[in-house]
Amino acid sequence: MVLMRALRDMNLPKFVFEDVPLFLGLISDLFPGLDCPRVRYPKFTDTVEKILKEDKYILSPDQVDKVIQMYETMMTRHTTMIVGPTGGGKSVVIKTLIKTQIKLGTPTKVHTLNPKAVSVVELYGILDPLTRDWTDGLLSSIFREINRPTERDERRYILFDGDVDALWVENMNSVMDDNRLLTLANGERIRLQKHCALLFEVGDLQYASPATVSRCGMVYVDPKNLGYHPYWERWLLNRDSEYEQKEFGDLFDKYVPDCLDFILEGVVHGRPVGPRLKTIVHCTSLNMVR
């Protein structure tokens, strides 16, 4: 049972929506007749649900489970990537995890940066070839700050919110592996401390090398798990007028699902009428509802 739970809980966060049933089927074939319930963290889970309600989000079991998967992955990895297209709820998962840790008594601070917004030199720093003076970059400055010693039980994270590609991330490989060392161009080495971690919020990994991906814990957030209904329900509940809520609700149910089926699937009232429509800019169902 322990082996089954380990195989399932360590691999389930990595799968896309369609692959989850296949994986669970393989697990059940490998361990026939064995029912292994998901490990639950009662206090943590209750706090996650409370945070989502306080932030006026619609409570979704799939999203709560993604927060728990992120928490479990970060317990075993000091570098974690949360991957998925826009509209899957990646930002909500990260923010909820941080707020939950703070509420449970673990102060957590996050430094967010877009690594593609600056050049590699501006990111890591530069050594003047003439004067040999060192100038810290954005990342090296933050890295130095979060790794200062602390006596408190706290967490400090760097969140890379942007594309992962070999141009800048290869320099982080020695930080992601067991060495946990960032080596700068001036020869200085800074070790990632136990209270620190790296997070990546990224749409896809098409530009990331296998060397980088293999060093990270992966949590895949599929928009199909969340869908557009929670966003719509939240918007509707925030309308002050009950009349508006009723009328908008009726009009939405009458028009929007059928329009989305026609645009995205080429289906009208459950019957295929042709190929899906071609859009100039790729849009998810959530994008269209927004």
Major sheet summary line: 5 strands, parallel
- The CATH architecture classification of the largest domain is 3-Layer(aba) Sandwich
Portion in beta strands? 15-25%
Using the coordinates shown, work out and report the CATH topology of the largest domain.
Answer: Rossmann fold
Average pLDDT for all residues: 85
Helix share bin: 40-55%
Give the helix tally.
Answer: 14
Number of strands: 11
What distance lies between the first and last C-alpha atoms, to the nearest angstrom? 44 Å
Structure classification = alpha/beta
Strand order of the largest sheet: 2-5-8-1-9
Q: Low-confidence spans: pLDDT under 50, at least 5 residues?
A: none
Number of domains: 3
Protein name: Dynein heavy chain 10, axonemal-like
Domain Dynein heavy chain hydrolytic ATP-binding dynein motor region: 2-91
Organism: Limulus polyphemus
